[in-house]
Amino acid sequence: MVTRDPRIDAYIADSADFARPILTHLREVVHAACPEAEETLKWSAPHFLYKGMLCGMQAFKAHCAFGFWKGSLVVAGNGQSTEGMGQFGRITAVSDLPSRTVLTLLIRQAMALNDQGVKSPTRANRKPRPEAKVPPDLAAALAKNRKARATFEGFSPSHRREYVEWITEARTEPTRLRRIETTVGWLAEGKNRNWKYQNR
Fold first, then answer.
1. What DSSP letter does each residue of 156-177 carry, written as one string?
2. Is 124 a member of any domain?
3. Residues 96 and 142 placed together within one structural domain of the fold
4. Where does residue 135 rank: exposed (0-12), middle (13-18), buried (19+ CB within 10 A)?
5. C-alpha to C-alpha distance for 200 and 196, rounded to whole angstroms
6. 23, 165, 187, 178 alpha-carbon torsion, rounded to 10°
7. pLDDT tens over the chain, length 200 residues
8. Strand, coil or helix: what is 188?
9. Residue 126 lies in a domain
10. Phi, psi (5° rounding) for residue 199?
11. Considering only CA atoms, which of 186, 176, 175 is closest in space to residue 137?
12. What strands, in cross-sheet order, belong to the sheet with 53-59?
């Protein structure tokens, strides 16, 4: 039985117009190929679990990404696109993805690897992501709130990046300003970007 995580519903609903059909399609294909898959939110993005990490998807400002946790063992080539995260490059429409049949075969291949207990290839050679650059408007807002600034500076790079990306991906100036105001409020309370989902 397919179990839906309401956080994934919210993630899709909050994504850009172009991204919603892509994310919805990927979600349906994963569940059709692997009805046992569990949904979760990791690193602020939807992921699917089946005896461990299986695959994940993410929406950005102008494209989406989809990839398998053991991508180099599932997808031909080195399993990593040079044009975006995941194995399928920058996805801007459902037509940028392999067919449903091909995706289903890849998902089942990834499932088989998890069934066999195959470990994920080493990620030792992967370069760490650079520190997120704090935009001037966020820096100015943090400078006015000592508690928020202290929380932000005390966060790990990944937690700081979650806030920076949320703000910089706003499509309009009013949305950006609201997100900055919300960010400062949450930081002043010691909250990370996804605090709402931590105790669910």
1. -HHHHHHHHHHHHT-SSHHHHH
2. no
3. no
4. middle
5. 8
6. -80
7. 567 888 899 999 989 999 999 999 999 999 998 999 899 888 888 999 988 888 889 988 889 988 887 776 766 544 444 344 567 778 899 998 889 999 999 888 888 888 887 776 654 445 667 788 999 999 999 999 999 999 999 988 888 988 999 999 888 999 999 999 999 999 999 988 877 755 44
8. helix
9. no
10. -105, 15
11. 176
12. 38-42, 45-49, 53-59, 64-68
In angstroms, rounded to a whole number, what is the distance separating the alpha carbons of residues 74 and 164? 32
Q: Token pair 């461990």 is at which residue?
A: 52
Which single residue is written with the structure tokens 């979650």?
Answer: 162
Q: pTM of the predicted model, to two decimals?
A: 0.56
Cα separation values, 56 from 106, 140, 179, Å: 13, 34, 25
Our count of domains for the chain comes to 2
List the domain range (segments joined by +) for residue 14.
Answer: 6-115
- Number of residues written out for the chain: 200
- CA-only gyration radius of the chain, Å: 18
Give the number of C-alpha atoms closer than 13 A to the C-alpha of residue 52, restricted to the C-beta side: 14
